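Dock adenosine-3',5'-cyclic-monophosphate; give full complex structure.
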Amino acid sequence: MERTLVLLKPDAVERRLIGRILGIYEEKGLKITALKMFKPSRELVEAHYVEHKDKPFFHELVAYLSGGMVCALIIEGENVVRTVRKINGATDPAEAEMGSIRGQFALSKQENLVHASDSPESAEREIKLWFPEG
Ligand code: CMP
């Protein structure tokens, strides 16, 4: 069974959208198998976004994600990586389909509510970072 790592970012938590977003994944029939909420360290967020370390928005992105509470979850299911990315919508909310989470609820490219792994390999790497306890 495939797994993916999902983050409900600080804007989702601050806007009280946790329940609504979890409901969208669950109503689709996906299974949430782990969930925790905490304020991640700068080191964890830098390791998570290492592939973006040379991008101009990297420092702001790290400050934003490590600046508030994040809800981290593992979701399991068939083709869950692709399915969850479709449910989340495009990174830029202006491009995201209206039925997606970002299409419905987000406006900003940075504060775009959710993160999901982009491949099964990234998912396993990210799960190890966010759930080191196993
Ligand atoms: P995510 O899917 O978590 O992957 C990388 C994140 O970087 C992305 O969501 C956004 O939060 C952020 N991001 C991507 N592109 C930009 C951009 N052009 N400006 C600011 N933040 C961005």
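Observed: The chain is about 40% helix and 20% strand.
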